[in-house]
Design goal:
By secondary structure, this protein is an all-alpha fold. Helices cover about 65% and strands about 0% of the residues.
Length: about 90
């Protein structure tokens, strides 16, 4: 929770827009694995790697998006106008 609050306050989730989606996909995958593990044995390393892979993929997709936006705007990407966001927490 504290890491999420920190990322929101720093505006990181605004810069990496797909990161939040990747975290939600990872939670969904973990829920699916939990249901499958009722019947089949799934190694913990597989579970961990799936979560890390989904978050890494979303981070990489966000970086690609930011580079494409920066190229389209002539070099002034979203990181250049970073502002701190109050989360109200």
């Amino acid at each position: 929770r504290s890491l999420t609050v920190y990322l929101v306050r720093q505006g990181t989730l605004d810069d990496y827009v797909y990161l939040e989606h990747g975290a939600h996909y990872a939670i969904g995958a973990l829920a699916l694995i939990l249901m499958v593990s009722i019947r089949y044995q799934i190694p913990e390393v597989v579970t961990g790697l799936i979560g890390v892979a989904l978050i890494a993929w979303s981070f990489w997709s966000s970086v690609r998006r930011n580079k494409a936006l920066a190229a389209a705007e002539g070099g002034s990407g979203p990181a250049g106008n970073k502002t701190e966001v109050s989360s109200g927490v």
